[in-house]
Each structure stands twice: as C-alpha cells, then as structure tokens.
Amino acid sequence: EAQVTQNPRYLITVTGKKLTVTCSQNMNHEYMSWYRQDPGLGLRQIYYSMNVEVTDKGDVPEGYKVSRKEKRNFPLILESPSPNQTSLYFCASSLETVNNSPLHFGNGTRLTVT
Amino acid sequence: AQSVTQLDSQVPVFEEAPVELRCNYSSSVSVYLFWYVQYPNQGLQLLLKYLSGSTLVESINGFEAEFNKSQTSFHLRKPSVHISDTAEYFCAVGPDGGTSYGKLTFGQGTILTVHP
Fold first, then answer.
1. In Å, how far is B92's CA from the nearest CA of chain A?
2. Cβ of A105 and B44 within 8 Å?
3. Which comes out higher in pLDDT, residue B42 or B24?
4. Chain B interface includes A33 (CB < 8 A)
5. From the CB of residue B99, how many other CB atoms can be counted at a distance below 10 Å?
6. Which has the closest alpha carbon to B47: B13, B74, B28?
7. Which of A90, A94, B22, B94 could join A101 in a cystine, given CB atoms 3.0 to 4.6 angstroms apart?
8. Contact call for residues B105 and B3 (beta carbons, < 8 A)
C-alpha cells in the first residue's frame, strides 16, 4: 500500500531533550516536506526537500533540522525542544513539485514538550 | 511572498443544505490553488486543484471551486452537503515556478460541521 509513515504518533518529552520524528514514503517520491499544524494557524511549512541531499527552509524552520540521505526517508530533528514546539506535525511527499502532483500526508505526530 | 486567508474558521450547516467555504489569496506571481480536506485523526487529502484552463474545477464527491483572478479568490462550494462531509478544509497556494517552487502555503482552515 502506497503511504507516508510517521513515527511515533504521540510523543511527550521534556525541554532540551533531543528527539527525532521519522518519516518514510514508499512511492519513490522526489519531494518531501514537514509541516506543523496549530489551532487557528493552519499548516505551516518547516522544511522541504526536492531530492536527495537537497533541502530548503520553509516558513518556520527555527529550532528544527532535517536530512535527506535517502530518497524514502526525511527525518525531522529537534536538537533542543522547547514548549513552543508543542504541536501536531505532518510529513508529506509528492511525485514531483507540489504544483504538478498532489501531496500525500502521513497521519501526524502529536508532540508535547513540557 | 504569498499568503492565504480563509474567511471563516467554522461553518455549521444542516444536511442537504448548500455550503460555501471562502478563500482569498495574495501572491506576486501566477499561482496554483488547492483545496485539501482533513478528516478527524487523519492527514490531509487533496480535494481539487486549479493549475490553468477552466476557472471552475470539480472534485469527484460533488465539491467545486472557482478561480477568480480579479478578486483573488478560490471559494469552495457544494450544492448539497452530507454528514460525511464534516471535516476541516484547507485552501493552499503554490508558486508558479521560480526559485520557491517547493513552497506550498496553507490557510488557517475551516471546520465544516454538517448537522442532521
């Protein structure tokens, strides 16, 4: 089954403890992206990647890191999480650029930083 | 820079009534426009998109949206809603090429609740 898989679905952590949220797609998609969803703010793009070893900042990259060493994986890294990073995070992928092909979303990771 | 404004955060309607979810955008370049839908506890799914050509686009489940360049709008409509249409709907705008072709900007979302 074609899908975008995020892990974990739920995560509670403490301020300053490094964490990684994994994202994997099995559709051989070129493009991958991370978003955070907050009430009243919709989805905001954190980082995106057009291909392996190519990443770029979205609208809210501060406090996050990403890597794209393999085509299928696009992990989101929080080196020193803070409470304002408590949010619902979505990974998404598409075959080509977002204009030409639809985004496929994972089911989300709900992160709480205390 | 581009931006999207969804004018209603919540829209309650009764089953079989018509509905319109409003979306306005701003961009300095030509744009592509999208509506995505999010059902409870799920990720977003593409509902419909405007890339070029006819300004009226339709989805397979009865929704339609009209691109209005002069009013910079892309409102979503359905003539008769069902309980199963209850979800959150997101309007999004993507740049037409250029150096930021990977960026897709979403609106704040509109929660559509269909009552029996």
1. 9
2. yes
3. B24
4. yes
5. 8
6. B74
7. A94
8. yes
Residues 17-46 of B with CB under 8 A from A: 32, 34, 36, 41-46
How many C-beta neighbours within 10 Å does residue A29 have? 21
Q: Do A99 and B90 touch (CB under 8 A)?
A: no
* A97 inside 8 A of chain B by CB: yes
Average pLDDT over residues B100-111: 81
Contact: A35, B106; criterion CB under 8 Å: yes
Q: At B83, is the secondary structure helix, strand, or coil?
A: helix
Residue (of B116, B92, B96) closest to A100 by Cα position: B96
Q: How many A/B residue pairs have CB atoms within 8 Å?
A: 69
Q: How far is CA A59 from the centre of its chain?
A: 13
- Phi, psi at residue A83, to the nearest 5°? -55, -30
Nearest to A97, CA basis, from B93, B103, B22: B103
Quote the pLDDT of residue B5.
94
